[in-house]
Please model this.
Amino acid sequence: MHDDRTTVLRAPRAEVAPPAPPAVEELTAKLVADLIRRWRQGERPLPEEYLDRHPALRDHPEAAADLIYEELSLRQEFDEEVPPEEVLARFPQWRAQLEVLFDCQRVLGPRPAAPEFPSAGESVGDFLLLADLGRGAHGRVFLASQLSLADRAVVLKVTPLDAGEHLSLARLQHTHIVPLYSVHDDPARGLRALCMPYFGGATLDRVLAALEPIPAARRTGRDLLAALDRTQAVSSLAAPAQGPARQALAGAGYADAVCWIGACLADALQYAHERGLVHLDLKPSNVLLAADGQPMLLDFHLARAPIGTDEPGPPWLGGTAGYMSPEQQAAWQAAQSGRRLTRPLDGRSDQYALGLVLAQALAGADAPGEPLGGQPHVSPGLSDVLAKCLADNPRDRYPDLAALAADLRRHLAHLPLAGVRNRSLAERWRKWRRRRPAGAAVAGMMLAVLTSAAALALGALSHFSQRAGEARGALHDAQLQLARGQAEQAADSARRGLAVAHDLPWRRDLTAALDDLLRQAEAGRAAAARAEAARELHRLADRARLLYGAEQLPPETLQPLAEPCRALWRDVGRVTAHLGAAARDDLLDLAIFWADLQVRLAPPGAEADARRQALAVLDEAEVRFGPSPALDAERRRHGAAPTAAAAPAAATVWEEYALGRALLRAGDVDGAAAALERAVRRQPQGLWPNFYQGLCAYRRGRYADAVTAYSVCIGAAPEAAGCFYNRALALDALGRHEQAGLDYAEAHRLDPTLRAPPSRPLPARAQR
Model:
């Protein structure tokens, strides 16, 4: 299902200016991390590369020694021992420092081993590994049986624990993208297992290899299916091998089969692009042809957000030699030298790679990008479509993958192409005949009998009238759907109408109306996507607000939030630009919670480093969103020295309750009570001002006030289990155990992890 033998290129982020002495330690840490990452991705960089790029480090022997020692440790990890004498000969100027390191290495012993990848026959958690489907530098892919779910067949991709592909796949649910069922971490072995459905089939590169004995011009869709069946992985677990896709492929010519596969993949890529992800590693080995004939995208481990020309070079960038667009190669080179990009890297790069994949499939050649002109099975129109995809300048390609998919389907339907010039009169005539099989006979009669000209004119008029009616019907559907708030459906209807209206050059008014409606629908869809993203962010922030107030929580309760918080804060710039000022309070609370979470989850001995990282997050939050008394209080709580400047006054409800919350965590209960009282006065029915006021009142022993505050919270958020649970604690403290039991029961109903304290039984009514 996955073969990652092709070399993947990664580029470290380079610094432009030599570091000042105070930045040496930070720079060295980044370079060491980059060295480790590149080794584990298959490259073998040496410390000399980094020292040449940053010559100022040569004045700091301790920094050079760190890089050299990391190389030795990595060689040990990959069983590539190097005698110390060889290293001393490479770096004679630091002989004394390196001899000390060698002594330490002998005393401390070897570093922890690399991730221990399993083999077929072993078990990984709930999964029995049945067969090896593929392997590469980034992991292993197995056919597996999930024991707890009736031994269902699944695909298990096993990667190092720090891999982030699951975060990309979790955002994508599309017919032509292999979905993600679940993620399972094994910290003891340093592994992460991604569980995906088993569809059978084989990757496109294997199918094309099986087709090589047949010349491309003589292939058929049935040949493609036969090659697919021959190359499927041998397994006792059969995937469904019937369906409309197989039937369509069996009756199609080879060029049409490839064209249909390309349209499906273009749909999937467009879907990913609309969700902020560019694949960046599209190639035949990352395309699955399922057993039922459906093409599906694989392997999003290099996927990332688009990069504009106004952004600095990325810290890493991947790709496969031979399938990268010109702008992707230029971006890789820019990242190496620390320069900004001269051209944006966006979804049009995936379009270029898809063009290469389709050209390779049609040409039947080993090397992608073979010229297609003159090949008898490739029409001039299809050749022009692929040439447009492969234009050196992204601006000369299709504006997006949706436009490419539309032209591929127009080609399959024998319609004029919209994105390229229909330059071949012979092809246009063939398409017309295929759309209207009876038209050839009519044309012959016209040549023989001049009186049939009137009949042909009437037929053409009827045809164009029918097409105009279809376009008007699509316009009407789109208008109704847009009025109902169905932006996605409205956009599809408008595109359908535009595809028809292209045949009606004199109806510019209809085309303009459809274009305008499509723009409105796209804007509505973007607004809906922003609203959904804002809701997701708010849900995560509310969960953080609830957990922040609980001081005694086990790590297993907090750990699931670590990765979402880390990923979101890493991408905070794009999130802020996408959602605007409305997301400010949620992002500030997530920054505060993420800073606090790093300290809470720090292992013994690492607390000081965790506090430094927490302070860095809070400092970045202030740079992005401006100064705040709440951020000042959080910084002091994590050990920052007080500043001489006076803290700004709280200007919003959020700043008041966030300040009170920070003071409460710092132990200043009276100061917290004053701040929270001000927050409640500003927003008497607000959920979080009352929630933290209730928490503060409880800790001051004012249990009746706590009950009142949590009652307001329940009115504001009746589905929030934490509000019932905290009110139950306050009722218990007042001796109102019957009412407390009812609240405990309701909290448990809403969240089964919340139960009454084991020291007190629930009353009979609550137990029911």
